[in-house]
Amino acid sequence: MDTGRGILSAIPLRAEPSHRSEMVSQLLFGETFLINEIMEEWYHITSHLDHYQGWIAAHQASLFATQNDPMSTRPSVLTYEPVLRASSITRSMLLFMGSSLTLGSHKEFVCVDETYTYHGRITDHILPENEVATLIEAAMMLLDTPYLWGGRTVAGIDCSGFVQLLYKLIGIALQRDARMQASQGEDVYFIYEARAGDLAFFQNDNGDIVHVGMLLNNHQIIHAHGRVRMDSIDQQGIYDNVRRKYTHHLRLIKRMLP
Fold first, then answer.
1. CA-CA to 132 of 20 to 30 Å: which in 29, 44, 123, 213?
2. Rounded Cα gap, residues 60 and 71, in angstroms
3. Catalytic residue among 159, 219, 225, 249
4. List 44, 111, 211, 225, catalytic entry
């Protein structure tokens, strides 16, 4: 089957082949995918990052033969600023945190036959001892990002997209939805045993996992709920100090780092 790559800053991944359909996720610039089906001006795809499926508009991506990927001649690196513009002689391109670039000399990359220069920071070969610090720094840069169902950028993000993006920066691929992510990693049985970078998962009244956030320590969490925010957490769940009530009931804690 054909493969492709996102060539816009963020491409909506939709539940059905229609611009009116629900956005279930996004492809960031440079992320690759497998085409499962073509329907008129739409591709049904599987993302290589998390194996998530959905529909994208055909004109928002670039296709390539697997053995002839024009952007895979060098290892990929990830953008680190929440948002930055890469510039060519004639135009500029908006890039969000976590975009995948294959940079040549002078931080140049090619997109649709035009050469752009990227001036921002990248994540490349992060040492294990720096992984937690990178997760926390990136999370803080996204504070107050508005909540957006299916979002994965500083323009709008959901809870599972938020933690997925953070872990992508350190080279760990999380699945897309909270209930899927909960199947990854190792169990942490008590909140007092939790460490910075651990993920906490929360359930609704039916016992379904519906929310996730990243622990900053064993009593604080950062998560996307209305916006990216920090709250208190204990063995019962997330406590909103302003509203003086629990907003999410803790189901389990998972450690994704070794």
1. 29
2. 16
3. 159
4. 211
